Amino acid sequence: MLLLTLPENSIAESEQLLPEQKIFTSAAFAPDGRLWRLLPSQTFVSVDYSIDFGKTFSQPVRVNPTDMPIHAWDENPPTLSVDRNGRIYVLYFANDRQSSTSFFSHSDSGEQFSVPVKISSEANTWYHYQTEMLVDATGRIHFTWHDTRDRAEYKKQGGGDLSIYHAAAKTGKTITLPADQRLAKNICSCCRTAMAEDIDGNLVLLARFVYRGNIRDHGLFKLSPDGKISEPWRVTFDDWEIEGCPAHGPALSISEDGRYHMAWFTQGEKRSGLFYAWSDDHGKTFSPPMQVGNPDKLPGRAEVLALGKRVALVWKVFDGAKTRIEAMDSVDGGLHWSAARAIAESESQSAHPALITDGKQIFLSWSSLDTGYRLIPIESIPTGQY
User: Fold this and answer.
1) I want to staple 192 with a disulfide (CB 3.0 to 4.6 A). Which of 37, 249, 363, 378 is the partner?
2) Rounded CA gap, 319 and 297, in Å?
3) Which of 87, 119, 114, 85 is nearest to 102 (CA)?
4) What does the alpha-carbon distance between residue 215 and residue 133 come to, in Å, rounded to a whole number?
5) pLDDT at 383
6) pLDDT value, residue 156
7) Is the overall model pTM greater than 0.85, yes or no?
């Protein structure tokens, strides 16, 4: 597990760039069934697509017209999304006036992309990273990120390391982002924030907060369609006291019936390991935490995705020689689960696992240096004891 202790002017930059950055591939399905893929290199990002579930891909199309130092690491990978109209949205990170500046570009067809723009209104002044992107049901595109601009305020008050900021705009031929706003403060610096849309239209964010006594547990907060920000409330009570950031963010998915599915990692006083829980009251209360994976194998980096009543969980384990992706699934909304099983492995450096769907099936989307990109269906198997 990577723990980051943060110097004054550097956050989350301890992981080195990899050759060609090939493991940071991102993928998403379009309504026509195409699998779009984002590929970063050292100086540019490009997209291609597959019509045979990742067996073959088209010629790549470059996104950024001008070379720039692309900057990505495990907790700060580039992202690709496709909306219900087939528009493609690309978010990536490059070293500009501030390291790891987030850039955004979009395309109606994937043949040519808009001029990249910076997400943060303070991008030239304050360091920001771990930007998340989501297109909601009304066609608005949302960006949230970790931002250091309030650091002086936190030094005076104590508490967390930084803030989460947000910007959103209506999608279309042109996208103009308004001034951004702060959504939450006292955020643990290097744990990625998970984001999902609730069935009531609220944007739901799950983040690791810094609570009194340097406790680093998780909280939920919401942004309503009319722009109202809720006060965050704590949803994990593991009492993980640590000087530094675990660099291990949570996962969140909301099913069509409104059930929240949450996975997180902790090494707290009250519980330690990887856990899953669900909520049927919009995150006010959660089911008792269920331990995920064999704790002796040090499971981590969980992802969760709900598709109707089907829920899939994947996570990483490492035995000292190989990294394996293990999976389990539920067909009744997370009440009962199949036995865990390994579905992929690598003997080289690999990305964190991601789950994507074409609306019919759930897939593992995963890259490693030795095997390249893989799209693996999460097959349903009979429910077993876990």
Assistant:
1) 249
2) 7
3) 119
4) 28
5) 55
6) 65
7) yes
pLDDT averaged per 10 residues in sequence order, the chain, 386 residues = 37 42 91 96 95 97 95 91 96 94 96 96 94 96 94 71 92 89 92 96 96 93 95 97 90 98 97 97 98 93 97 96 96 96 95 97 96 93 53
Cβ atoms within 10 Å of 313's Cβ, excluding its own: 29
Q: Are 274 and 236 in contact (CB under 8 A)?
A: no
Strand 88-94 and strand 79-82: pairing? Answer: antiparallel
In the prediction, which pLDDT does 157 show? 64
Q: Which helix (H) or strand (E) holds 219?
A: strand 215-223
Rounded distance between C-alpha atoms, residue 317 and residue 300, angstroms = 7
Q: What is the DSSP letter of 243?
A: S
H helix or E strand, kind and range, residue 356: strand 354-357
Length of the chain: 386
**Spatial CB neighbours of 241, under 8 Å, sequence gap ≥ 6:** 213, 214, 215, 216, 268, 269
In angstroms, the CA 277 to CA 18 distance is 34
